[in-house]
Hints:
Blueprint (H helix, E strand, L loop, with lengths): L9 H24 L6 H4 L11 H11 L2 H16 L10 H12 L8 H8 L12 H6 L1
Amino acid sequence: DTFKVAPESKKLVLTSAGTKWRQFKTYLTNKHVLPYLGKKKKLRKPPKQYAFIGLQPWKEFVTQRKTEGWLKLNNDQRERVKKRKYHHRLSRKGYIRLEEELRDTWPEGEVIDHAIMWKKARLLKNGEISEEVTPVARKI
């Protein structure tokens, strides 16, 4: 049996499924692989709540996550995230939805500057800019 999706919803459904798949793999990696890298016994089979994964796919997943190249890439990304000073506060909205939101109130034909987007992305829920971002926002 197959799952039938309306043609107009296909892209949305596949995008959502892809996002959830990546999130699930990230969760498995962070909670069930990386903490047990030195403990072969813990990594032999999938966690009990994920027994549906199967032994062979789990072994392939763990093997891939243990490669030197993957661990280096993972570490590089973690370091890059640690260096970020001014995190945006858009949550799930993201820059694209922020821009769409601004377009509704923006004069027709005018370009929304990246600096304005940067400031808006760092507003607190009360509409103010946090103290740590204020000096940078003033320079922009």
